[in-house]
Amino acid sequence: MGQGLSCIATQEHGLFTAVQAGDLDKIQLLLERDPSLLHQTTVFDRLSALHIAAASGQIEVLSSILDRSIHPDILNRHKQTPLMLAAMHGKISCVEKLLQAGANILMFDSLHGRTCLHYAVYHGHSDCLQAILAAAQSTSVADSWGFTRFVNVRDGKGATPLHLAARQRRPDCVHILLDSGALVCSSTGGYGFPGSTPLHLAARGGSLDCVRELLAWGADRLQRDSSGRIPYMVALKHKHRSCAALLNPSSAEPLVWPSPLKFISELNPEAKVLLERALMEANREREKDILKGMACSLSSPSHSDISVDDNVSEASDTELCCICFDQVCTIEVRDCGHQMCAHCTLALCCHNKPNPTTACLPAPVCPFCRSSIAKLVVAKVKTESESDKEINSSKMRRVRRSNFSEGSSSFKGLSAVGSFGKMGGRGSGRIAADSNDWVDKP
């Protein structure tokens, strides 16, 4: 069907055999004798030499053919381009070369009405997916179609790339697509069961990782397909007990990535990784309660196993988050400079599930100075010399204030509590009550 490259198809001409094997010398010899061979195709699937090179990952052959002014969007029998075949087979070097050569990412095949984006996702090649999305942001696609529209492009049966990723159990692709603006609650046409959302399809496939990703990006557990089924019912029907437990409407609602907030969309990659990891850790803690007593294990290791170094010295206690007194400060609020750990920052932003009907959400405020948060960055890690200076300075202050701190067994703890009392002029008791509202209650 245009997807296999067996020797039966390639033996029809010596050129195709040489292309698939990557024999550049033989290719050049054949083309010197008859340059028109490059325009011939296999009899049945109409595969050109460029198709075969792309699907086989023969980057040198591919480059050589493109250098001979062969159009990168030549079609086979099913109107598939070399870029589609390279994405289908996960040949990232060929994908990148074809994109550089100007291959059109908006072409649809006649087999399923799919683009190269659909093929990369369906077969789980996240590196090819990222390359295609990067090209979409830097080419005319962003101007003519719009990047978000391209990310949500539908195939012949009304399936977006996110639908395919969820059904095929591709959590990495699901995450990349959601991060690129894929619509988490869009319904299918004729793909799968009519009216299915990505969450329905993930429930059908039993992918716990895909369910986690979709829920963390605001997928609605109560959205129904055309037959009136919610994802929970789909998971039960296909006997995916772990997925059903998380999708049960009566179970605890997960924390949701606060994508509507402007400063969240402007996060630098390092800060984003910290907050995304904190989100998954928080939701996994909820999963432990939901899945308690079930004779099943999580499908992948928990990120919570990767904890902050416990060997925190007394000298570095000043860097602990003054909200939870547990994690090291990793996120800094600009421009006030106050610091928190990623978990507390996330809880501050995710205290309410984003409402898709709301045009914009009010930005949360810094819990220390009550100023609106405009930007978050990774907190600067202090060097050893800076820490020593701060420790010496702290000791000097303690000596000067010994009359006030004498008799206290934990002056650092009292100082931290005192900092809460300064937030907006409120008392520490009031702040302690408010801080409980920052985290979603099950």
Automatic annotation (TrEMBL):
Coiled coil: none annotated. ANK repeats lie at residues 45-77, 78-110, 112-144, 157-182, 194-226. Residues 321-370 form the RING-type domain. Pathway: Protein modification; protein ubiquitination. Keywords: ANK repeat, Metal-binding, Repeat, Transferase, Ubl conjugation pathway, Zinc, Zinc-finger. The keyword Transferase applies. It is an enzyme of class 2 (transferase). Its EC number is 2.3.2.27. The keyword Magnesium does not apply. It catalyses: S-ubiquitinyl-[E2 ubiquitin-conjugating enzyme]-L-cysteine + [acceptor protein]-L-lysine = [E2 ubiquitin-conjugating enzyme]-L-cysteine + N(6)-ubiquitinyl-[acceptor protein]-L-lysine. Residues 389-410 are annotated as: Disordered. GO terms for molecular function: ubiquitin protein ligase activity; zinc ion binding. It comes from the Eukaryota. PROSITE patterns: ANK_REP_REGION (PS50297), ANK_REPEAT (PS50088), ZF_RING_2 (PS50089). This is RING-type E3 ubiquitin transferase. The gene is LOC104594558.
